Input
Amino acid sequence: MSVKGAVHIMVFKVFTVAPENYEPIKERIAERFPGNYYEVGDGQWLVADAGTAKEIYIRLFPEAEFPLAAKNVAVFGITGYWGFAPQDMWEWIRSKTGAKLG
Output
């Protein structure tokens, strides 16, 4: 059931293929998505937003900014998930998407 005017929040995975230099990307994610990101590990984050993967990327790297770092980053929309991970990560996903755990 959808509610008129409701915003669907999706979780996106943002990662860098050059994790040795991820601090500028981490700072940008914290600045652009305050309270709506979860650091999975070095160079890997989950971001909650109502936009698309492309819109997230553009918010992180508007044209002319971070030209080199932007070439080593990918954003994927997550439509399903399964596995073993820290409980706080599952709780973060649930709190952002309204998903039920277990």
